[in-house]
Amino acid sequence: MSKHDVQRRNRHVESDAPSTEKSANSGAGRAVADATPSMAQYLEIKAANPNSLLWYRMGDFYELFFEDAVVASEALSIVLTKRGKHQGQEIPMCGVPVHRADEYLQRLIKQGYRVAVCEQLEDPAEARKRGAKAVVKRDVVRLVTPGTVTEEALLDAKARNYLTAVYCETPHEIGTTDADARLALASLDISTGEFEVGDVAGSDLTGELIRLAAREIIVADGLLGDQNFVRAVEYAGGKVTPIPAAYFNSAAGSRDLKTCLGVADLSGFGAFSTSELAAIGAVLKYVDLTQMGRKPLVNPPRKTAGARLFIDAASRASLELIRAASGEKSSTLLAAMDRTVTGAGARELQARLSSPLTDPAAIEARLDAVAYLVDNRRLLDELRSTLRSAPDLARALPRLGFGRGGPRDLAAVRDAIGVARRATSLIEMSAQPLGLPAELKSVCERLTQVPGDLAEALGSALVDDPPLLRRDGGFVRPGFNGDLDAARTLRDDSRKVMAKHEARYIEETGIKTLRVRHNNILGFFIEVTQLNAKPLLSPPLSDRFRHRQTMANAVRFATAELLDTEGMIASASERALNLEQEIFTDLAERIGAAAAALGAAAAALAELDVFAALAHLALEQGYTRPVIDASMAFEIRGGRHPVVQQALARSGAPAFIENDCILGKDGSEAPAGFENAPDARIWLVTGPNMAGKSTFLRQNALITVMAQMGSYVPARSARIGVVDRLFSRVGASDDLARGRSTFMVEMVETAAILNQASERSLVILDEIGRGTATFDGLSIAWATVEYLHGVTKARALFATHYHELTALARRLNGIANVTMDVTEWHDTIVFLHKVKAGAADRSYGIQVAKLAGLPHAVVARAREVLDRLEKADRRPRTGDDGLGDLPLFSAMRPKSGLNERAPSAVEKMLRAMHPDDLSPKSALEKIYELKALAETEKKTQS
Ligand SMILES: Nc1ncnc2c1ncn2[C@@H]1O[C@H](COP(=O)(O)OP(=O)(O)OP(=O)(O)O)[C@@H](O)[C@H]1O
């Protein structure tokens, strides 16, 4: 804050601070009764906005008081001062200058705070007319919350900004986060108008919120008592805002949505359940409250249920699709894929990546569009360079709708229409004999629907590079409006007009040194030296030259015509400004009338950017078009990990080694070397640490995500029978905040996978069971593989260090062993990163430890210990698992009595007894007998 800012601020604070010297009330809600009028006003407004930091406008500053000041000064690292007293205690205060409000607002919103912006609703001069002590009228004009911002400075250009309402109608006996509970979600991005509505099972809530990347999540305040619910929501990372349960009202939701869309009936937009309408109602109500009644721009809501690849929260985290565990953006799939050139394109790419499809026809349609651009390289390059100059139309429109837009938003509409026209003509000119793919046709149709006259009007009205703020004017092109030009000439020609006056006065008075000058206090005035002042102070000139001020060396005068001209100049400038405001309003209204067509064009531009980005990526990285069908195939040949491959290329390391992965071939040939497992749906992957197992596992999951979102994939060829659910449990993590150890997290996630996966799912599991005692871990891993094979029947990759598991492949024909190839050279292990058929013969753990730099003595001693352990170990080795006689899951369905065991002797005797036939004496004898039997059994067991 500059010194100047501080001085200005002190002036305002002294004149209008809510001082409370005489207030003696207490209580959290700070009593208003005894406060001074200005403090009473502050306290009333604060009481109406208890959950927000109150920005209280005082002149050129937004001031914060009491706890708000303490919180904000800490969050913004600004000075905390004190001003006046309340209940005998000094009032903490801090403030931000109005001209830097956006910057500070952004910092608070980023940290998850809500801000109530309270403005002065009248000029202080107006207030003074009501009496010396009258308080300037103020009220909150807007609540700024993370999910309801529209300003460019407050938004991330590349990310959606969803406000999501979560509604649960579930009766109390069922936990909100149970699999049986249904939750309705309504998500609205008021910065673009995007609206998505759907429902999820309670157990899928976190995954869904992560997919939506919800920035602010509103829930009924009563739900905050449900700890599991709160954890599930908080885990997703959005800011949680409780609101009254009454806001979740389906009737109000239906009514408000109709109003927003301007329709009388919603059936044209799909069927919404009562719960979904309640969630819609809450979102619209909250927006209404935060925007103080200004109506948001709302696109017709899209239903999100169905036709989507399900990826739960743990799998999303493990695959690092959008967020990386390390927080590094560059190591995510999104970063590896993002070649978009516009913010809207980047948002659309993220949305598609978070939500791949499951309808093969819809996926193929997207791939057709990408393929078209891959095949038309010139068109692709021209489109990308055209799109590069596209402004963010999707975000400019709602700002204009809210009355918060500036001249640059008008220019954004103008420029976006220009880009839309160029892009359409580029695509249409390229049209092949067989025509455009459906998705590109749809893009072109939406781009051409924008009213042409609007583009012309904006083009002729606006200067090329308009200023940011509407209030200062200067954005209308000269020549557009005759009145405006005349007013501007008068305003700008003031120098010339005054020079003419000056020349005339010199001639009239004969004073050559007479000057017409200007300052902020006197306005325009005539200045002569003391020596020359005399004739002007006496008649006849004194009639015309009225004395204004005498200085040490100069005397100042005014004339009636000087005052008139000054008035005309001031009114010309005001008139010019007013005319510009009228032109702005007119243009904004015309844009508002075309908002639906413009919104559709904005979405089409974003989609086009995504298709072009994916085509560019495919060509740059040598990706291929996958085949997605309804089969059960999973045949990736020559697959690569998209993120690791790019990282290796960047660091100049040797190229990534490609690998095949064939889980269920659906009739095609097995790859060379894998002929021995013709029907394997599950691959057991063994190999030393660092050999590339996790990379291999993940790359196949990522290829699936990429293919189903409609992208080319890093492989020589790929055929994927569409996957309905993708589960990935790769890499250990603990969740100590939730009181779960690494092993516990692993078991919870494995349980979720085994309970939810279907035959059509893809399951990626890495080293299940390693976090516990060897035999326990092995047994869990063993049973998990059997269950996946016999019950779930999903396509799966299972990496393990338990070599004993490889024996399963011989007994179950749905399982094949593969291993990461390594070779030894001078007692050092060399990783070849190649997947080959067969099982690893040993684990090489000690060699890897040596590579990691473990002290020589430790490595040598470990070798000795290993040697002895191996000699002493009588654990079943590969080939003789000793488990051949155990029933497999294929033979035992869950209800087959897994817990049954032979009854004990005590139980047998109890079952044979008939209590009604026993006399008291024989009953006592039986008890002695039973006790003795139990003792004997105990001894035999030990
Ligand atoms: N196909 C490949 N081509 C080239 N380099 C690879 C390949 N696969 C893996 N790598 C490199 O090897 C490193 C180790 O791979 P990864 O983490 O997948 O091994 P791992 O077998 O899962 O190890 P651990 O069992 O210790 O978790 C990776 O960081 C990568 O740089």
What is the gist of this entry?
The chain is an alpha/beta fold.
CATH-level-2 architecture of the largest domain: 3-Layer(aba) Sandwich
CATH class of the largest domain: Alpha Beta
- Total number of beta strands: 27
Q: So, the CATH homologous superfamily of the largest domain?
A: P-loop containing nucleotide triphosphate hydrolases
Bound small molecules, by name, code or SMILES, are: adenosine-5'-triphosphate
The end-to-end distance, rounded to whole angstroms, is 79 Å
The chain-level mean pLDDT equals 83
Provide a count of the helices.
Answer: 33
Low-confidence stretches: 1-17, 19-28, 876-881, 884-900
Percent helix, as a range, is 40-55%
Organism: Hyphomicrobium denitrificans 1NES1
GO molecular function: ATP binding; ATP-dependent DNA damage sensor activity; damaged DNA binding; mismatched DNA binding
Family: Belongs to the DNA mismatch repair MutS family.
Binding site for ATP: 687-694
